[in-house]
Design a protein that fits this description.
155 residues; alpha+beta; three-stranded antiparallel sheet; two-stranded parallel ribbon; 6 helices; 15% strand; globular
């Protein structure tokens, strides 16, 4: 699997709605990712992903593509583009996973999401939860890792 498809599938371990930010050669990259997912569907390769999503109440899995026309400005501009789209969906929490980190495991993604949701739940009122600015940065072998987990108030 491509790094992008690998990353989307890992993010689906925690959330059924993923935003993928594209930069250079966006149309060709999107076409390649779409074809790869279509092939997975034809082979039945997404059954586990869907079963997991259904297990936590999701109707299905989503992957929305966003083109960052300012991609030459660097990764931060892509993160900003993705967060802008994701925040419009009023998520409880957000995860940011750069495509060049394919060794991140689904279990890590799910654990980070779970801890972030627990931290949000510790805020008793909707107002407190909405204002709660919090981030989780995993560490691997003493180094900062990915994905970055954020509350909407911090994003």
């Amino acid at each position: 699997a491509s790094f992008a498809v690998h990353g989307v599938r890992h993010l689906w371990a925690a959330y059924e709605d993923v935003v993928v930010v594209l930069g250079a050669h966006a149309a060709a990259v999107q076409r390649g990712i779409t074809e790869e997912f279509e092939a997975l569907v034809e082979r039945g390769g997404l059954h586990e992903d869907l079963a997991h999503a259904h297990g936590h109440g999701a109707a299905g899995l989503e992957c929305q593509f966003v083109v960052n026309r300012a991609w030459k400005r660097g990764m931060l501009s892509s993160v900003q583009a993705g967060l802008a789209v994701a925040l419009k969906r009023k998520p409880q929490a957000l995860l940011v996973l750069p495509v060049d980190h394919p060794k991140v495991r689904s279990v890590t993604v799910a654990a980070l999401a779970n801890v972030l949701l627990q931290a949000l739940a510790a805020n008793r009122t909707p107002r407190d939860r909405a204002a709660f600015s919090y981030a989780l940065v995993p560490r691997y072998k003493g180094e900062r890792g990915h994905p970055l987990a954020l509350t909407p108030a911090l994003a």
